């Protein structure tokens, strides 16, 4: 299972060649999106037409939501680190979701996730 962060999906939606090549290289492997990533992508849309287009493109991905236990773990991390690391609410929920499934989070936003214990970050392709 591959869990993607918002920045990776923005590259995919923009048809950034390295992102598309990387994504297509995974064949039948399950690629999942945190529900919060889907919401962030929709939040970035300016029109109903853009929302429809994004939702259609995302329809082939499975959406994953945290359990209440994962949310409570994220709350503890947020309470400890939000001031010292400026970690965002959504970022801590996404990061803790990855930790709970024991899978890496594919992202280039490493600094957003530094305080989350046990989180593995993977940079999936070269940016440039």
Can you put this structure into words, describing what you see?
By secondary structure, this protein is of the alpha/beta class. The protein has one domain (2-122): 5'-nuclease (Rossmann fold). Helix content is 55%, strand content 11%. It contains seven helices and five strands; from the N terminus they run βααβααβααβαβ. It has a five-stranded parallel beta sheet with strand order 3-2-1-4-5. β4, α7 and β5 (121-122) form a beta-alpha-beta unit. α5 packs across α6. The radius of gyration is 15 Å and the shape is globular. It starts with a strand and ends in a 6-residue tail after the last strand. The mean pLDDT is 95.
Q: Helix/strand-derived class? A: alpha/beta
Q: Give me the CATH superfamily.
A: 5'-nuclease
Give the H and E element order: EHHEHHEHHEHE
Q: How are the strands of the biggest sheet laid out side by side?
A: 3-2-1-4-5
Q: Percent of residues in helical segments? A: 55-70%
Strand content: 5-15%
Q: Uncertain spans, ≥5 residues at pLDDT below 50?
A: none
The CATH architecture can be given as 3-Layer(aba) Sandwich
Gap from first CA to last CA: 26 Å
Name its key features.
about 10% strand, alpha/beta, Rossmann fold, 7 helices, five-stranded parallel β-sheet, about 130 residues, 5 strands, globular
Task: Write a short abstract of this structure.
It is built from seven helices and five strands; from the N terminus they run βααβααβααβαβ. It has helices spanning 6-13, 17-24, 35-43, 48-58, 68-85, 89-101, 110-113, and strands at 2-4, 31-34, 62-64, 105-106, 121-122.
């Amino acid at each position: 299972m591959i869990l993607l962060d918002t920045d990776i999906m923005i590259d995919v939606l923009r048809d950034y060649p390295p992102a598309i090549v990387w994504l297509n290289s995974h064949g039948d492997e399950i690629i999942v999106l945190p529900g919060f990533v889907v919401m962030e992508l929709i939040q970035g849309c300016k029109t109903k037409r853009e929302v429809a287009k994004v939702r259609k493109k995302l329809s082939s991905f499975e959406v994953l939501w945290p359990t209440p236990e994962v949310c409570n773990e994220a709350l503890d991390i947020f309470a400890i680190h939000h001031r010292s690391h400026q970690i965002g609410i959504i970022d801590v929920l996404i990061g803790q979701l990855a930790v709970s499934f024991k899978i890496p989070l594919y992202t280039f936003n490493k600094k957003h996730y530094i305080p989350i214990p046990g989180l593995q970050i993977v940079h999936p392709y070269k940016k440039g």
